[in-house]
Design brief:
Oligomer: single chain
Shape: elongated
Number of strands: 21
Pfam family, one: DUF3142
Helix content: 25-40%
Keywords: Signal
Distance between the termini: 58 Å
Strand order of the largest sheet: 1-2-4-5-6-7-8-12
Strand content: 25-35%
Number of helices: 10
CATH architecture of the largest domain: Alpha-Beta Barrel
Largest sheet: 8 strands, parallel, barrel
Structural class: alpha/beta
Number of domains: 2
Length: 409
Amino acid sequence: MSRSLRSIVIVFIAALLAACHGVAPPLTQDAYIWQRQWTPALRLAVTDSKDIVGRWRVLVAQADGDGQLNIFAPDLGALAASGRPVVAVVRIDGRLADMDRPAFVDRIAALSRQWSGKIAGMEIDYDCATARLPAYAHFLSTLKSRLPGVHLSITALPTWLSSGELDAVTASVDEVVLQVHAVQSPKAGLFDPVLARRWVDDFASRMHKPFRVALPTYGSRVSWDGEGRMLAVESEKAGLAPGASSAELSAAPRDVALLLGSLRDDPPRGLAGIVWFRLPTTDDRRAWSLSTWRAVMRGEYVEGRIATVFSESATPGAMDVVLRNDGDIDAVAPAEVALPDGCPLADGIGGYALRRDGHAVQLATGDSRFLRAHTQRTIGWIRCAPPSVSSAVANDRRDASRPLPSSPS
């Protein structure tokens, strides 16, 4: 018996024994590549992550609200060199109502043929309202008939659990990916591990085929107009609308690690694995670092620690208030930072504002954003009376003499 055949037999026997003893197999972990531009940083992230990723789920096309399909050009060489299977993802704007137009189905079927032999399946990502599920079910049935032999998956929303059409939507597909992040009002936050676990369990009770859970690795800036209407969600680039108010929302590695540990320790029936949105890169300022992502994936996450230090300012007589992350893991910056006594003049920058509560003085923010490992961020300044500067401030000034790279704002 050859070595490769012997390995296959061993894996098969191990899986069989696990099934006989009621032990769930390990959760596979895929990753979405959602970037339209293949930068050197993205190619490096693919190379550096191939040892821990099962499949790449790559955005290859996006349909707008009018049904116009925009085709992207992933780096097939980089994907092939990683040695990991590829699932081609077609994103459809949730506002598109008329999906059954023959020309639209023809274009997706043609895209599948174009990728034939290069992909392990196709996925449709359509975040539609619950009322549109009957039409979506019909579209998927039509599309599946045009994709003979192609493994077809879709993404799904927790809101669909309230619909009796969910079974019809999933009837024509081979696999479902449940999204548990960014599915509520942005003002409710990006990710809630307790609520996400409830959705996963409810979804498992409805599914009759394998499903995966999409987990976040990113943050977003959400902006509203003066009447509270959402204007934009910026996850990969900056640029707010004039006059808009905004807030940074982040999926804390701690919270995601909590849910992942729960799914590993007590997996619901039918759960096949995790899909991460999205593959972090060094130039993606709103995603975790690769080291943090890998730590969470492996169940090795340890809470990051951020220190507040006070460094010499360019303004004479003032000191900068700096958040430092000396660790190897990203952490979410604190919402409140206490300032020392005897510093009557102060102000915040970069999303932080001065807040006084009696004698207590703080810099506070409503934003939640990452401070990457081994970086620092200036959040304000203070001017203290010389006799009142505490020894703690003096020590922090000494520690801050070793500057770290600044975190992008």
